Amino acid sequence: MTVLEDIIAGVREDLEARRAGIDDAAIRSRALAAPPARDAFAALGGTADGTGRDTVLRVVSEVKRKSPSKGALADIPAPADLAREYRDGGASVISVLTEERRFGGSLADFDAVRAAVDLPLLRKDFTVEPFQVWEARAHGADLVLLIVAALDDGPLRELLGLARELGMEALVETHTEDEVDRAVSAGARIIGVNVRNLKTLDVDRSNFARLAGRIPPSAVVIAESGVRDADDVAEYAAHGADAILVGEALVRDNAPADALRRFIAAGTAARPPRRA
Ligand SMILES: O=P(O)(O)OC[C@@H](O)[C@@H](O)c1c[nH]c2ccccc12
């Protein structure tokens, strides 16, 4: 069993436990009653013709307590306070991990962040069932995560379609050429290249440059994982990242807002001219 399969088995068990407490009809009506989703694609600089590439490097800042590769990363007594720091530092989107077993996240963390800031929020979890998409919207999410390695084409399209029906977008995460091509043909317009292989947890930053060029300019390209400092940000930006997704380096920093400002400045300065 790969790490990814192992995580998903736990996610499915936890999902069944939550479903015992709230039925499908109830979660759907909560989702439909929630205030409308914010436009995450625009917040990330996306435009239909790709002109967003002229603008600043955007950051998706993550609330991440622990990870399967590194264990505990930071004590986060109040996710709402961290979220306000992220907002003040210029985050475009905040990602909140809700996977409990390996990442120490929860929907309670998500709710706390939702109550504290008005930015678009990514519900970061291993989304494998439509119920999780309804649930995300019911909690005020604007984006869900769809990991191509975890989904066949049918479910990938179905979950992406449902997210959009509910007014949300999806961050469609890839790690190989084939996954990028599957994301593009499914119609994804926010595509992440995760330099961490979720089957082995190995990080290879050079993967980003290799894969980013396959993504059409109409999509927002997000470099995910492995940012240690402003030099890493500049490198991703130079290779075509419109945005970066950062967890560890921000949660470990005593002044995350300042770190964010440095990342945004370094990434914006390194961005190449817009691709034709
Ligand atoms: O902490 P890092 O190295 O900055 O990585 C953040 C983010 O990319 C990582 O948390 C992540 C990327 N894809 C995921 C899928 C599920 C859970 C977590 C992730």
UniProtKB/TrEMBL annotation:
Keywords: Amino-acid biosynthesis, Aromatic amino acid biosynthesis, Decarboxylase, Lyase, Tryptophan biosynthesis
Tagged with keyword Cell membrane: no
Keyword Signal among UniProt keywords: no
Reaction it catalyzes: 1-(2-carboxyphenylamino)-1-deoxy-D-ribulose 5-phosphate + H(+) = (1S,2R)-1-C-(indol-3-yl)glycerol 3-phosphate + CO2 + H2O
Enzyme class: lyase
Gene Ontology MF annotations: indole-3-glycerol-phosphate synthase activity
EC number, as in UniProt: 4.1.1.48
Domain Indole-3-glycerol phosphate synthase: start-end pairs: 4-262
InterPro entries, A to Z: Aldolase_TIM, Indole-3-glycerol_P_synth, Indole-3-glycerol_P_synth_dom, Indole-3-GlycerolPSynthase_CS, RibuloseP-bd_barrel
Annotated pathway: Amino-acid biosynthesis; L-tryptophan biosynthesis; L-tryptophan from chorismate: step 4/5
Listed Gene3D superfamilies: Aldolase class I
Entry similarity comment: Belongs to the TrpC family.
Name this polypeptide is given: Indole-3-glycerol phosphate synthase
